[in-house]
Amino acid sequence: MAANRIHEASAIFARELRPEPVPPFKSAIPVSDSTNQCRPRPAELTAEATADSLGSVLIFARSRYYWSPARVIRILWGVLTNIPQQFELLRIMRFPAFADLLRTDPRFRFKFLIRDYLVRDFSTAQRTACFLHHYRRLHASMSGGLLHRILHQRVTVFEALPDDIHIEISLCFSRPFEKEGELSLNLHVDEAVVFVLSFTIVPGWVVQSEAEEVLLISRLQGTNGCYPQIRAATKALHNVGPSALLLAALHGFAKAFGIGRMAGVSALRQSSYTEELSLFYKNAYDDFFFEIGISKDASGFFPSSIPPEDKPIESIKQGHKIRTKEKRQFKGQVAEEVCLLLRQELSVRVSELSCKEESIPVADS
Predict the structure, then answer these.
(1) Lowest-confidence pick of 122-126, 203-207, 289-293, 301-305
(2) Taking 50 as the threshold, does the pLDDT of residue 362 lie above it?
């Protein structure tokens, strides 16, 4: 009964509160790849990529954090030793949504050169592979309008109004924690962001997985001072905690994209880990993954299917089975709503590509 009321409230918000019609998202930005119109010769591309890369690196000097000679040298060395990858970056960054982001944040294309980007102790090759794979995948799968909104604004993927509490889950480009994941699922309670799950679509080999690609969870933390809102939201949503709720939304994202595996970062490998807050990080990462039945492997990650396998209902204590079933039903509902919304938007991308192919003139034989 409660789940049905939440579903009805979610539908009402979908109709009345979203600022733009959904779906499909419309965008005035052309989707065509400008590199197909006039592709430079290899020598031109090499000179352009090198000059563009070295010039953009100087942007880091504007931030006091990068005034350390060691940091500047490390970033410069990362560029010079990854020239082939710079060609691919140059091509990807020409796509409209990314080009717009570069105008507002010129450092964006070099995020992967930051030490501890995504995971502590990732090599430059791993960081580069993660960045390139993620943005190739987004551009290949998302409609131009949806991608632009995610990078520059936010997209609501779930809303509900239980007990007069406005609860929203949004999908957006990760800000301001730029090195802790490329996308974020944010939990809003009465408009305030109270919990964040950040993730990146990465090639499986970087986390020692046999899967072709994996969702890497690299941030799973609440906002300081928001415990009252978190507690109220948890109570209103079948006692499903914020970590589990956002993980259910991530399940919907994975299902829409056809991704079947995930890997959670351990406390020690989380990019912002400190010894002073070790207990906090252990509770937020290691203890949470262990609680939902995921064990850490030799690589230092918590690998799992999406969603993680539930414990058999027979193993649940008497008196908790009904509540456990309600929680699972609700999380499944959240995942399904997120999946359906994104699948509708991903289908727009297919239509865009079909129209693009039909517009290409074919010579008479």
Answers:
(1) 122-126
(2) no
Query: Please, what is the Cα angle at 309 between 304 and 311, to 5 degrees?
Result: 135
Average pLDDT over residues 39-63: 47
How far apart CA 248 and CA 336 sit, in angstroms, is: 9
Mean pLDDT of 221-231: 91
What is the residue extent of each domain of the chain?
A: 2-23+154-356, 42-141
Closest of 331, 267, 260, 330 to residue 296, by C-alpha:
267
- Cα-Cα-Cα-Cα dihedral of 323, 325, 328, 334, to 10°? -80
Is the bond preceding residue 162 a cis peptide, omega within 30 degrees? no
Rounded-to-integer distance, Cα 292 and Cα 345, Å:
30
- Show contacts of 213-216: CB within 8 Å, 24+ apart: 213/133, 213/137, 213/259, 213/261, 214/259, 214/261, 214/262, 214/263, 214/303, 215/250, 215/253, 215/254, 215/259, 215/261, 215/262, 215/263, 215/306, 216/118, 216/119, 216/130, 216/181, 216/262, 216/263, 216/265
The structure's pTM equals: 0.76
Q: How confident is the model at residue 63 (pLDDT cuts 50, 70, 90)?
A: low
